Fold Mevalonate kinase.
Amino acid sequence: MLSEALLVSAPGKVILHGEHAVVHGKMALAVALNLRTFVLLRPQSNGKVSLNLPNIGVKQVWDVAGLQLLDTSFLEQGDGPAPTPEQLEKLKKVADLPEDRVGTEGLAVLAFLYLYLAICRKQRALPSLDIVVWSELPPGAGLGSSAAYSVCLVAALLTACENITNPLKDRDAIGRWPEEDLESINKWAYEGERVIHGNPSGVDNAVSTWGGALRYQQGKTSSLKRLPALQILLTNTKVPRSTKALVAGVRSRLLKFPEIVAPLLTSIDAISLECERVLGEMVADPAPEQYLVLEELIDMNQHHLNALGVGHTSLDQLCQVTAAHGLHSKLTGAGGGGCGITLLKPGLERAKVEAAMQALTSCGFDCWETSIGAPGVSMHSAASVDDPVRQALGL
């Protein structure tokens, strides 16, 4: 068991193209978003395990001695099912969660407890730890916040238990794990995602682990080898939506109008493939006309998604506001509200970006200027992170 503190971060994700079409066997492009979740793990000697999640107001402490007495044989990792409802009930009792607390807070605590017990159970004794998690990602916005949470926790716990290497060498600011360790992190993070979501696709934790961009089709993922640096505005309309209901709505529309909707899904697939091709060409020497193609693809995909019935007046407003400043936007994720992305071409006037952000904020939206294709899960020295991160984590 390592004795030093560990600071780990992992990115969120956005879907660049392929929303909803991916449910019907088409390709989706998912990219790492440079808004990150951070985990600070500090070994303790007080016989306690504490979890502090300031973003969602959770702070919980357990006695290691009590956890040590649990029968954790059902926590073996593998290809079997995630914990059964009965086993989750047992974890809820251990976590001291009220019966009705199964929202974001309760699931975050359950996932932590599951991963802590499952990963650390093979130690001679369960370790005493103090863990603080802080995120730049808004929860429940379709940006992969739960996957970034699981990936960070897993990477920190596996490293602390010396199941994987510590990638941070002396005087390094940031370290990345070798491929074999990333595979292990991703596999365990998927288990954490199953506790939270039941039956996730695995895309979010894969993007958060490896970073960059992934193509996903019919359960198979593959990394794009390289990606040009792309700046975006990310806008959260803060309109809640049900992914399940939106997916069901597209399926219903496909059954009702197969000759109309099936070609739309095929066209969205073609947009994803064309975007992948253009991004590949842009790596070596991006040209202005290639950014114009990316903007056209964004506009076409947004119209297709509206035709599928997953648009929303808030997203229309987002697109209109940015179009008034010469920018191009589309929804990302399930639609029906949620988030949208806006491409920022190189050389864009600073005043134009700031005016667009101000206009979006005045609509009641949250807006960030960030990048996509961010690095995956990373280990940091405390000095390598910005002051707001240090302050939030109590460094």
